Description:
By secondary structure, this protein is α+β, with helices and mostly antiparallel strands. The chain has helices at 4-10, 54-63, 91-95, 139-152; strands at 11-14, 19-22, 37-39, 42-47, 50-53, 70-73, 86-89, 111-114, 119-126, 129-136. The chain has 2 domains: 4-93, Homing Intron 3 (I-Ppo) Encoded Endonuclease, Chain A (Alpha-Beta Complex), CATH 3.90.75; 100-152, GCC-box Binding Domain. A hairpin with a 2-residue loop joins strand 9 (119-126) and strand 10 (129-136). Helix 1 crosses helix 2.
Amino acid sequence: xxxxxxxxxxxxxxxxxxxxxxxxxxxxxxxxxxxxxxxxxxxxxxxxxxxxxxxxxxxxxxxxxxxxxxxxxxxxxxxxxxxxxxxxxxxxxxxxxxxxxxxxxxxxxxxxxxxxxxxxxxxxxxxxxxxxxxxxxxxxxxxxxxxxxxxxxxxxxxxxxxxxxxxxxx
Length: 170
């Protein structure tokens, strides 16, 4: 099992940039080179023939323990592993800070046009339950209902924002 002391022997973590750098030579990779590669948007690093996600290694590096559950990238950028962008989260909490879906047409998470009665239908998921917030003739009223529910149920203020430009981080 990887420990904080072994991790700190092998890698240096820059909490301002979120980057890991090798402190030792690893095969053909010399000390001083940035560690890891991108896989589905996440940085992954191989240590002792096992792959680790860099955000989980950052947590181990900074706290001395692997996270008990998930790590949430607050700004939704999967490879932005700056310490200020990471927080421990349960699955439920992590779901309250999701990007707006790519198939969203209304521009607001949880709001869609209901053709049958020509209204904006509003819903929200909380504790695994789909809660119907109502139908509204005015889109602004639907947005207000959704935002009020997000506040009531403790959603993160970044929930439902557009995915950031992936070129933000290399």
